[in-house]
Amino acid sequence: MGIAFISEQTLRRNFAEVKAGMKRKEAVDESNRCLYCYDAPCMTACPTGINIPSFIKKIASGNLKGSARTIMDANPVGATCSRVCPTEELCEGACVLNHSSTPIRIGDLQRYATDWAIHNEQMLFSAGQSNGKRVAIIGGGPAGLSAARELARFGFAVTVFEAKEQAGGLDTYGIVSFRLPQEVSLWEVEQVRQLGVDIRTNAKVGADVSIEQLRREYDAIVLAIGMSKVPSLGIEGETLDGVFDAIDFVESTKTAVRTDIAGKRVAVIGAGNTAIDAATCSVRLGAMNVKIVYRRSAAEMTAYAFEYDFAKQDGVEFQWLTAPARIIGNAKGHVTALECIMMELEKTEEGRARPVPIPRSTFKLEVDAVILAIGQTRHLPLIEQLGIAHKRGIVTVDESSYQTSDPQIFAAGDVVFGEGQGEAMVVSAAQQGKKAAYAIYKQLIKLQEESA
Amino acid sequence: MADLRINLAGIASPNPFWLASAPPTNTGYQVQRAFEAGWGGAVWKTLGDPIINTSSRFAAVHFNGQRVAGFNNIELITDRPLEVNLKEIYETKKRFPNHAVIASLMVEPSREKWHEIVKQVEAVGVDGLELNFGCPHGMAERGMGAASGQQPDLVEAQTMWAKEAAQTPVIVKLTPNITDITATAKAATRGGADAISLINTINSLAGVDLDSWLTIPHVGGKGAHGGYCGPAVKPIALNMVAECARNPQVNIPISGIGGISNWRDAVEFMLMGATGVQVCTAAMHHGFSIVEDMIDGLNNYLDDKGLSSAMELIGKSVSRYSDWGDLDLNYQVVARIHEEECIVCNKCHIACEDTSHQCIERHTDEGGRAYLKVREEDCVGCNLCSIVCPVEGAISMVEVPSSAMPMSWNERQEAIAGIGGEGNAKSSAREAV
Q1: Which of A253-257, A303-307, B277-281 bottoms out in mean pLDDT, i.e. has the lowest?
Q2: Is B135 among the catalytic positions?
Q3: CATH fold of B6-320
Q4: What are phi and psi of A410, to 5 degrees?
Q5: Which intervals hold domain 4Fe-4S ferredoxin-type (chain B) (predicted)?
Q6: What is the pTM (predicted TM-score) of this model?
């Protein structure tokens, strides 16, 4: 294979946000189409309960600051969510106009209002009067930021410990730039920082700061560390040059351009949200061919319908009912092929259909890179060090207060997702962060005041 | 955060947004729900003798897919006994001592009747009174409402009677179904009114059903005129408010009413002289929660303008409103089309070609691309093209320098009179006025 060249300019264009924001007339026309329902189903469908009719009416009346405030008040990462929420399954799916017309473009309107706030450098909230209590938040992703924002408004002194160089978590590093530019997430981080929240980046709990110190110096701790690396497939060849962890792969494109995928044939293993991101990312990096290899069928994949459509439009091919069996490399230790085996689905008593290999069906896909997107492991060592109850790294919490087995520690976001608990969406993480903050307020302030 | 409080002729309210006397303020339950939602005041639905109402009362005018551009009603004043209303007013005021509760009143035009009702409502703690001289249907046939509101002498006398008994501020609500609103506004002022509120509804027939040929609405096959309100009446109301605000003989505060649907409308009325506003149709269309954006939008607007109080808005545009005879006849604007914004729908061209001054030309450039251009020397500055243009920013009306000095019609007539031929000039000026 010859050396393919992709210019930095092309790469930058490929990674610019795909979808254009609404034009003013478009937003005004659409906002005036909203019926302003009472007890609106869109609101109920939003995990953070944004007062959607209200923010839309404010766009119609020209009160854009009020509109952005209504959105961000309920959802501290509302600008991100306007871009990444599966709106057809949430607010827009619930819109009453689905019956008689087409639903209101709630996500696009939400983006219009929050974009206005970003471009006009609006500071939307202020911190509450100090209540003398301190809260440590481990992890500066959507759940952690959301908890920090609400706690700061209640008057807590909040410190966020973020292992990475920037806060924002998945929103900053884990979602491809052409769907979510990094500056959107960083604006949300800045909104929280401006409330006086001390966001300490490059600060890893357990290494740079001890758990004992947190327990001693803070009245409560919120664990919002999300998930970790993609697990190993347990097949031969995973350490070859050209095998990537999808999370790391997407992250590498958020801050820099990479030219090593141009002209290559790529196989992405898995069919979840991250798999779609890794696949479309590869296309935009100039890959010659990108295949998603998934052991189940389209009906079972966890990616959203809009993500599936987006990937197809980008030219991603889908290899259904196919499981990787072995990654083959050359003498230099570089990937040259992926050996696969065809699967069939076997019905099970409960849950998803189980894929079973079809005997003697192995075949070889010639590829130059393999990206693993088969879920994420847990930050087990830290969870164990904290000594809180968990099931295989999924922290057990009270479903209303998000309190863990340790009364001083609360947990929200992906760290509590799994085993039938929680949801994997950014918007759910934001809501859980809020709930944890309300529970901390109740425990440390409200109940103390009432008993005083 | 600006101070949204207002004080209208001594009636204090946490914000300028009141519900007008109408169906939304029929009961204590409703008014209290409204206060909970954020409304600053409410004018209770007009009290008076128990009334028999009709069934089938409202109708609306929808415009190109938008519902309720205008709204028409044939409902009468309260249909609940006075004692019930008084009890609920008392309870409401007790629960919301800082909100403005105004009683709207309508009785037969007699001194005793006015004294009696004023004393009854003031005894339960209202913050002010609003005399309903405006209702155009039902009551007018009995010599009340608009029937008395159309006669300046009756407005003056009844205001005086109410004032004789009143301890709280008296607001006189005016009907727009009259040629010159300032005639009754001045009469109210002479009668001692503390404030006026306007406009009440305009005589209207909402429509006729094309299949049954019945009026909309109809009551058992017959219709009668109703009162029109909602967004469609706003310009009529705004003019009447402005005419009263700039009339030196109407030197009392104004409560603005008529098609106010959001904070922008409220700001316009306040700039044109209203101290606060009253809303009905928008609340009937969407519920009480619309006040949330009214408050929030006004607050953000005042912050943006660097104003610390809503009261600072009052009357700021009144001095800019005058008579046609005072407008500068030599001021000139022309239309300018911005090609980069223009979508070449040709609506401006056909509007100008068919219905104005034929000065927007259609051209094609060397690349075969169509574009439109204004022949500025023939443009009279009528604004029509910019009005029909669907794209914001595609047509702007720009001022062009005039070779002549500013000169109004009145100045022109004076100048002509000054250089002789006085008789002619004076008489033509008189004819024009």
Answers
A1: A253-257
A2: yes
A3: TIM Barrel (3.20.20)
A4: -115, 155
A5: 370-400
A6: 0.92
